[in-house]
Design goal:
The complex is a heterodimer. Helix content of chain A is 30%, strand content 26%. Chain A is an alpha+beta fold. Chain B is globular, with a radius of gyration of 19 Å. Classes of the chains: A alpha+beta, B mainly alpha.
Chain lengths: 246, 220
């Protein structure tokens, strides 16, 4: 019985201790450091520039689940939906030589990439869908990043619990060939639940990085001054990892 | 010579702490989406092969539902778990623990020998003077150390989309990311089953001495 009570005690200590430790400064920074180790491990075991697997049309999930925000509140967005987003604009701003504002039609006129990829939610589920849109690198060629730009911030029209959604990626992901600004899912205009009219696809990272309802892309040198400073809505709110490749 | 080498003892207790933290934070993560699927994808009830219960707070780390915090714990303890296992394996190769105690002999795989061993176990007769472990022990420890624990690492890595881009063969090995997730869950509970059996057998075979030897190393 001694062993069992020892184990039970250990488990209880661990559970209680963990919560306390996680709330302490050192606990949080130690746990936070692990995110960097995981990114380094992925870089040691492989390359961040590797291509995510692309599937065949037969593998596509019959329905693509929407999660998080599944629509944007407010009359303005409903008007956009009714008019098939003819008035929607995507602004590319920040540390760029030539700031640019693009309509949906202009984005569709750029060279397009179509890819069938697996979407992995942090909760654990996966879905396979076909995404179409211009590569982010094409947009960056047009606006010309300034040398001090290190991250791209994606601003969104949706809010969750009163705070606007946003996300950010580094330049390795921004220039990756599979990073696209998708306007179509499975050959159809992006459904509202999946982020109409525009969403980021940064394959090789979890679902919360795939920002929906995009209104702007901002090039920045640091994420510290953007909203909560951790580079994304869920990162700020709950402490999810900014590098979501794990 | 000590009954258990220092490296074995250190790893044994480190591994217990890691597995407890990984298992309990894993149950918290499971609560985020309590369904399992086979293949590359799955998200809806009709695709699931198993519906999981909601694991209560006393079983999880942290004790309240938090996917973000549980992931931090899970990914943090994965490091000492994985590298601890690697170092223990190397030490067991070098100090002869593997060759001397864990490798099974061909003769032990004979049906009559296995049957005799099982019968002996059922009589709760654990005396085996000639070797340190009997066949069933070697089989159990061998399966855990060389199959189950490495599979936990492999299925865990296969769930990371960044890893999958680099090692697609790893995902294929398990038949897709959702299959890897299912295996991860099944093997985790198998390890919990092993823990219960392990504790039961320690209790039945002189728990004070067993526990003392795993701490001090024990006599020759």
């Amino acid at each position: 019985m001694k062993r069992r009570s020892l184990l039970a005690g250990l488990a209880a200590m661990l559970a209680g201790g963990c919560s306390k430790l996680a709330q302490s400064g050192t606990g949080t920074s130690l746990l936070g450091a692990v995110e960097g180790w995981n990114r380094s491990l992925h870089e040691v075991l492989g390359r961040r520039t590797a291509l995510a697997r692309e599937f065949s049309p037969a593998d596509i999930s019959p329905f693509f689940r929407g999660n998080g925000s599944t629509e944007v509140a407010g009359k303005a967005y409903r008007v956009h939906v009714a008019s098939q987003f003819v008035g929607w604009r995507l602004a590319v701003t920040g540390l760029v030589e030539y700031p640019l504002t693009l309509s949906l039609a202009q984005l569709k006129d750029l060279p397009q990439r179509t890819q069938i990829t697996r979407h992995d939610c942090v909760e654990g589920w996966s879905a396979i869908g076909q995404w179409t849109g211009p590569q982010l690198s094409t947009l960056l060629d047009l606006v010309r990043l300034k040398p001090e730009a290190r991250y791209l911030v994606f601003h969104c029209a949706d809010t969750l619990d009163g705070a606007p959604y946003y996300e950010s990626i580094d330049l390795i992901d921004a220039l990756h060939p599979q990073t696209i600004i998708a306007h179509a899912l499975n050959g159809q205009p992006l459904p509202v639940r999946n982020g109409a009219p525009l969403r980021l696809r940064v394959e090789r990272q979890l679902g919360y990085k795939q920002a929906k309802y995009l209104t702007g892309i901002e090039a920045v040198a640091s994420l510290d001054l953007i909203r909560g400073g951790k580079g994304g809505y869920w990162e700020d709110r709950s402490g999810y990892q900014w590098y979501a490749g794990t | 010579m000590k009954r258990h080498a220092l490296t074995t003892r250190l790893w044994h207790w480190l591994n217990l702490v890691c597995l407890a933290a990984l298992f309990m934070s894993g149950l918290n993560i499971s609560n985020a989406h309590p369904r399992l699927y086979w293949g590359h994808w799955g998200f809806a009830p009709e695709q699931a092969w198993l519906f999981l219960p909601r694991f209560p707070g006393w079983m999880t780390v942290p004790g309240h539902y938090s996917l973000a915090e549980a992931r931090l714990w899970h990914l943090a303890f994965a490091w000492p778990f994985a590298f601890g296992l690697l170092l223990f394996m190397l030490a067991a190769l070098v100090n002869g623990h593997f060759r001397r105690d864990l490798v099974t002999r061909l003769a032990e795989w004979r049906w009559s020998a296995i049957r005799a061993d099982v019968a002996k176990h059922l009589r709760l007769d654990f005396a085996h003077e000639e070797t340190k472990f009997n066949f069933l022990q070697k089989l159990a420890y061998g399966l855990v150390i060389f199959i189950a624990l490495p599979l936990m690492i492999a299925t865990g890595l296969a769930m990371g989309p960044g890893m999958d881009a680099n090692w697609p063969w790893l995902v294929d090995l398990f038949g897709g990311r959702q299959s890897a997730r299912s295996f991860h869950f099944l093997i985790a509970w198998s390890l919990f089953g092993f823990l219960l059996l392990h504790i039961a057998l320690v209790l039945l075979s002189g728990p004070v001495r067993q526990l003392r030897d795993m701490i001090t190393g024990g006599g020759a």
